[in-house]
Amino acid sequence: MNDIAFKQETFRDDYTYSNSVEAIKRFPFPFPEDNYMYSVNIEPHTKGAIGSVFEFDLDIDEHYVAECKDKLITLTQDPGRYAALPHMMDAQWDFLELVMESLSRDYPELFTLKKDGKRWTWTNRPLATQDSFVFGDASTLPMEPFKYIGLQTQGDFVLMDQRDGDLFADAGIITSQADWSLAFDVGMSFKQWHAPVPHAHEMGIFDRALKYLLHLQAGQPVRRLNWTMTVNPRLDTSPESYPQWGPDRNTVTLENIGGKLHLRVELQALFRLPRSNGIVFSIRCYLISLEEIATNPVWAKRMHRVLKGVHADLAEYKGLTKFRETAIEWLAKFDDGV
Amino acid sequence: MEYGYWIKTKPAYSNLSWVKNATRHIVLAEGAGGLAIIRMYQEQPPAQPVSVHYVVTDQDRHYAQAIIKVMQVGSLHIHTSVDEAIAILGTELSSAYMGLRLYLAGSEHMMWQAAKTAYEHGLSYQEMQLEQAGTLARPVYCVHCKAITPHATTNIAACAGCGKMLFVRDHFSRQLGAYMGFMIDAENPGDLPEIAEVYP
Amino acid sequence: MSQNAMNKIQVIVSAIHQVTPLVKQFVLTKADGGNLPTFSGGSHIVVSLNIHGRIHRNPYSLMSSPDALDSYQIGVRRQEQSRGGSVFMHDQVQVGTPLEVSYPVNLFALHRLARKHLLIAGGIGITPFLSQLHDLKRNGSPYELHYAYRAPEHAAFTQHIKTLAGDDAHFYAESRGQTLGLAGLLRAQPLGTHVYVCGPTGMVNAVTDIAQSLGWPPGNIHSEQFLAPPIGSPISLRLAQSELEITVPPEMSILEAMEAAGVDAPYLCRGGACGRCELEVLEHDGELLHYDHFLSDAEKYAGKKIMPCVSRAKCEKLVLNI
Prior knowledge:
The complex is a heterotrimer of chains A (about 350), B (about 200) and C (about 325). Chain A is α+β, with helices and mostly antiparallel strands and about 350 residues long. Chain A is built from 13 helices and 10 strands. Chain A has helices spanning about 20-25, 65-75, 90-105, 145-150, 180-185, 190-195, 205-215, 240-245, 255-260, 290-295, 295-310, 310-315, 325-330, and strands at about 45, 80-85, 110-115, 120-125, 130-135, 155-165, 165-175, 220-230, 260-270, 280-290. In chain B, the strands form 2 sheets. Chain B has a 5-stranded parallel β-sheet, sandwiched between helices. In chain B, strands 7-6-10-9-8 form a 5-stranded mixed β-sheet, covered by helices on one side. Chains in contact: A-B, A-C, B-C.
């Protein structure tokens, strides 16, 4: 699985992004039932099936190079997509260590980590970079450790500080989010930054999730899936850039929705960070168009039923309202009612 | 209210009351927040050192006289601007010890600016009390240009930085001391919902 | 691996030092060689001890540097009036003895927003501060350490502390009439100071009470106490989901009795502090004895929850939902 053919594709402007047959096969389709409802749905992030997105702690796929490029564009245009409060430096190094050790262990043909005491050398073959630095000394890296390695991974990351019986989102690199603002949310507690999610609070979901995460142990990470839908394979669907992608919701028709509307699945994983006692929350985004979903008859049928059944508040919160009916109409032909 | 449900970051304010085991008290109030000072002193003046900072506003000048009369103990400073009061607050905090409590009364914008200064001097939110007085006007943070519009009284308000029409959400950041605002007509420019004064 | 089991590390005792008449320091290295997992200052490990066929699990603070990962170091004070864990460590564990320990867990972490850290240690309570000193120095955080003990011969690791902390460490020997003036100390701390206390219950209560009476908010006061599960009367225990009837003997905690019966019960700190082992009480016909620090007074009174790692009951029958 290590000889990946990295695609050259875009997640903005001409939107040339697409999935290969292999990428479709391994896509983390998130609906085990015809009806979707919230749950804590956390499970141990243990080694999954070979070739699946759950095989390793951090997943690298054919979109790696293109995503890193897109991430850099977003961050350059809006530096507020990266934030790290001053007390988070220990967590930054914890995160760098986690990423470098995972990627070099799980993708040895792509990444190499050499350690000579505290002198480390990191080689990233897909991005053609190599850097030597002193672990723990930020002045020996071209930029601070969280940003440095965050730009070389797919997905968004939040570093949380554990204190006051709570978790605080005190650092983040967020360029592929489903409509939340790091610049606004940085520094918030667990229940504060989850506040906009409808209904889940009354169900006690975040109380239970927080209690569980406070006891998260080193070496025993957990994961869950989250989903929404996006018009065009756009990673940067942030509130900040809403004027750029918001109008796209008006451009969806029955004729073009198959290629335009994408299911957006987030594979979220949480790891205890040893030195800082914090937690890293990784949010790995996978995009698949309705047409690509339709190549799997089971998925197409289920997608149809989930969209029909989703609660109005949830649909509103996930931004589905404008194209929901059209999507249901397009998917109807794949649902034989059985 | 948005989307038919209530967002839980919106702060809930309460009436100020002296913390009995504090070793020192600092009060900062503006305009109609002066009532809170008068009420607290009428309840019972504290035994520990108090310093009161009051920012007079044009419509609430009469409170200043009442405050002067009611304060039998403690030091009183009258300010003409919030910025000046907060600067003096910062100076007092930089030489303060554990055991201090801060009491704020006035507009959300003023209180959260003061809270931010206090936080930067080492005070935790547990050591502050906030009483909203005089107006429900909301400070709004524009996610697009990052400016804060200090006193929005309508559900949709023009951003003081970039002019976009922002929907004023209930989602609130204590760090920024503002509610989140995003361009309400981004999908269909010019297509605005009804604007109403909901935070007078 | 079961859902509730903690990760385990196999270690060997590579050295033992008699530090004071009552305190021994154990140096543990990884059985298969290599580095042990890194950790944050204030962390502890849970050591499994097989005493006469029964597994005892005791938490001990890591006193070593989080950067020196070739070994973990723990300090154990000999307690005669105990269930035998510390006596076993002192008398039976030798250089070369293999032990099973958990990954480090931190329930006594330094607060990252603190502008100053005030560390107060009593007796063997000094151990968690020793690993914290490394983190404080690495991050250049202002701190003071105040270490009180009965007499100089019972002061553990003082030379080590002086090397690490220099003038930031202050020592108080009761036998020499040196007392730690808590009120004066707590009154003189700048805004944003956090106080951390680890030591005998009396000292922990004194620091907490005095700090609160001087207006310190509870969030700025941190303490660690490893409550040993107390000995009590035997309990007839019924586990509703597992459909088991167990007798909990006087010297075993409810948690230990469940584990001995093969039940995969959740736990973390094993000291009544973290809440992880909380179980629902379905039925009991007597009195619940809550010895934990986790449940609120209301919850303890309501009698619907229990912390099986330290709490007990005086009754004929106790039914738990596990």
